[in-house]
Amino acid sequence: MKISDIVLVEVGGDFPADETHSEERRVDPLDIYTEFGDKPFSPPSPSPGESVRRTASYLEVRTDADVTGVFGPVDGPHASILRREMRGFLLGRDPLAIEKIWDLLLRRNRHSRGGYYMMALSAIDCALWDLKGKALGMPVYRLLGGPTRDAVPAYASMLGHSLQPDALVQRAREYKALGYRAQKWFFRYGPGDGGEGASRNVAMVRILREAVGDDVALMFDAFNSWDVPYAVDVGRRIAPYRPAWLEEPVPVDRISALRTIRERSGIPVATGEHLYTRWQVKELLQAGAVDVIQADPDWCGGISELMKIAVLCSAYDVPLCPHGHSLHAALHVAAACPPAVLPQVEFLILHQRNKQRFMKGYLEPQDGKIRPPETPGLGIEIDRGN
Ligand SMILES: [Mg+2]
Question: Residue 97 belongs to what domain range?
Answer without folding.
Answer: 3-137
